[in-house]
Amino acid sequence: MSGAERLLPLPDVDTAPFWAAASRGELSMQSCSVCHRLRFPPRPMCPSCGSLDALWESVSGRGTVWSYVVCYPPVLPAFADRAPYPVVLVELAEDPMLRMLGGISDCPPDRLCIGLPVQVWFEQLGEGLSLPQWRPLDPATRLSGP
Length: 146
Ligand code: ZN
Description:
binds zinc ion; three-stranded antiparallel β-sheet; CATH 2.40.50
């Protein structure tokens, strides 16, 4: 461990429901009350119709790797001990325009590819704070774990 402090997400008025759901092990997205489009990241206005009204909706937590990079040093000091490490951009199953960045674990480097089916899991970062992460949906693809 490098000893460097990892920066943690700071929930605000727009993102607090997302982080509260994550702390319960749920992936939740804003859903526009007018056009019903899901959106991410959380924000006050629907990018499709301009409505300021939204609800929160749990989604499956499944998707496919749309793209990825492997981060090599130099990286932020808190991540130095992890490098090199992959970061994936996941296209969620509910909408191909709904994409989330995150880490991927339990995935051998030679199996990581665009189109890999993945499932969310939640990394506990501290009291009431969990970060969505990804791992291969197919257990046979994983390095270890359930
Ligand atoms: Zn809308």
